[in-house]
């Protein structure tokens, strides 16, 4: 999958201390990509927008606490 046009962003809650962060690209049509910020050349996980929304909603609802 070609992610060369992805615009990656890190959570505003992530610090610059080298912690365990992920980056998300949601600018590509029909998908949301997630990668490890410490390994930007490594693999990325790819989700459909509905799957990503369900995941984010689950986080907000505390389903993974």
SSE topology:
Layout: E1 9-10, E2 22-25, E3 32-36, E4 44-47, H1 49-60
Give your account of this protein's structure.
- The chain is an alpha+beta fold and 65 residues long.
- It has one domain (9-60).
- Helices cover 18% and strands 23% of the residues.
- It is built from one helix and four strands, in the order ββββα.
- It has one helix spanning 49-60, and strands at 9-10, 22-25, 32-36, 44-47.
- A four-stranded antiparallel sheet has the order 1-2-3-4.
- β3 (32-36) and β4 (44-47) form a beta hairpin.
- The longest helix has 12 residues, at 49-60.
- The mean pLDDT is 90.
Concise overview:
By secondary structure, the protein is of the alpha+beta class. It contains 1 helix and 4 strands, in the order ββββα.
Task: List the main descriptive attributes of the protein structure presented here.
alpha+beta, 4-stranded antiparallel beta sheet, flat
Spans with pLDDT under 50 lasting ≥5 residues? none
Residues in β-strands, percent: 15-25%
Would you tell me the structural class of the helices and strands?
A: alpha+beta
Order of helices and strands: EEEEH
Tally of alpha and pi helices: 1
Terminal CA distance reads: 32 Å
**Main beta sheet: strand number and arrangement?**
4 strands, antiparallel
Bulk shape = flat
Number of domains: 1
Q: How many strands in all?
A: 4
Strand order of the largest sheet: 1-2-3-4
Helix content, binned percent? 10-25%
The gyration radius over C-alpha positions equals 12 Å
Round the mean pLDDT to the nearest integer and report it. 90
